Amino acid sequence: MDSTGDVFLSHSEPKILNLLADWFDKELFAHSLRVRDVAKEMAKHFKVDVEKASLAGLLHDFGRGIREADMLSEAKKLNIPVNYVEKINPCLLHAPLGGKLVVSRLGIKDVDTINAISRHTVGEPQMSDLDMVVYIADMIEPARSFSDLEKIRDFGHKRLLEVFELAYVCTLYHLLKWKKFIHPKSFEVWNWIQSSKIEE
Ligand SMILES: [Fe+2]
Ligand SMILES: [Fe+2]
Hints:
This protein is mostly helical. Helix content is about 65%, strand content about 0%. The protein has a single domain, classed as Hypothetical protein af1432 (Orthogonal Bundle).
């Protein structure tokens, strides 16, 4: 079921593209295509499953098809646990919502792909290489522009964990700079990065 050949299951990529073109607005559809392309490029470079990276990149924002005002109630319906930071900022739920919705609406069954979609905003301790690729691709896709992005885009001579750390620093820095709430799981992800570096 989870082998590479079964990732798309009953859906070919053109069929998924048609569904997304209906489900997303133009901007989000274009962003999803760019993230797919960067995720593919990174997957080739870091020897991650390219087909899974492509699909997870394409579908990473599937949960954004739900209106932000409906995200809390939709999460409740789908038994997604919601913490106090997500109550304040329900948009964070688009990642776990997307992970659930690609299963129920698209029939995606590949656990690695579903995890990468669910983990692309806050992350998770024990991120897989695929999870990290999708997280980073979302941050560095060509339409993004903010300082320090070039350091992350220049991933050619860096280890994947090192690139992910740079990306995560950017996220945390942004939250601190703008005095935003930090998801409690972010501390676990940060400490997982540091302990993984010691083990390497
Ligand atoms: Fe997202
Ligand atoms: Fe995104």
